[in-house]
Amino acid sequence: MKPEVAKRRIESFEKRFGKAHLYLAYHAAFPLSLTPDLLYRLWANFQRDIHGQVRGIPWIAVSDLLLSSLCDEVGHELYEMDLAVRNVLLSRLKEDEKFGQLRIYELSDFLLEYVRQQLLSDDPDIRDFAQVQQWTALAYVQPSEAARELALAFSKLDDKNAAELVRMASLTETFAEPLAEFQPLLIYARGMGNFARGKLEVAKAELGKVLDERNQIKIAAVNLPIPEQIKVNQKKRKFTTKSIISVQKSIGAVVGIIFFVTVSSGRSFYKWVTPCPTGQQKLKGVFCVPGIVQQNNITNNISQGDRTLFP
To answer: What is the pLDDT of residues 38-52, one digit of tens each?
Structure first.
């Protein structure tokens, strides 16, 4: 759903039922899924704002909200809000001075306590519901712990179970805002979702963004599995590294030669322009050697008496 559509639905809901109903919708947007029991407990526990003022939310608001266009029934007595609707409501909850970030913390504590016993249930559906709610609560107040829990869940998945991979990928996407600082996890989730849908090249490109130098992905100290079908060619990566080192060595050698030639040329030029001491002359324009200055200004190293033998 587009954000504009979500906003229109929320405005329509408020216009029909009033501000008190909207306040309950704010709080109902915090859990990822809703049951009548959970929503009723939210209504009972959050009648007041953070300043202690009663908001006067009527009990009928519970059924009105579940049956409204803001919620979709996805199972027996199980409801969800569209992600766009949920994001708008949570944003307004945090921006409203009557609730703010403090209410987010209070909702997190409430939800963690609510699912504590359900996490130990013998019913796998109840456990899954509780686990998702726990991740939701952690994502907003302890994002590092939530990222670690999600990474652990991914590490235990069978890459042949496409349905579960898609479910986990979609679930992780819903935490994009509170887990914004854990982009590698979000990218990995997108990559695995594409892999589960058969989009192997897209998945490979996504995972390539977060691979380390050992061709691995580690998030919150958890090594995440990469299916063989979308692993990046390790040999190619090593060859590339060797090529880079070879180029670096070649550049270093060239720089060394240039430096040597420059220094040598500079020394020769210095000797060429520097005059010799008295009694010496230039040999080949560079070296100074002893000599005898004659009247005709010709210098010679070999003489006998007053007569020059080798002018």
So the answer is: 999 999 999 999 999
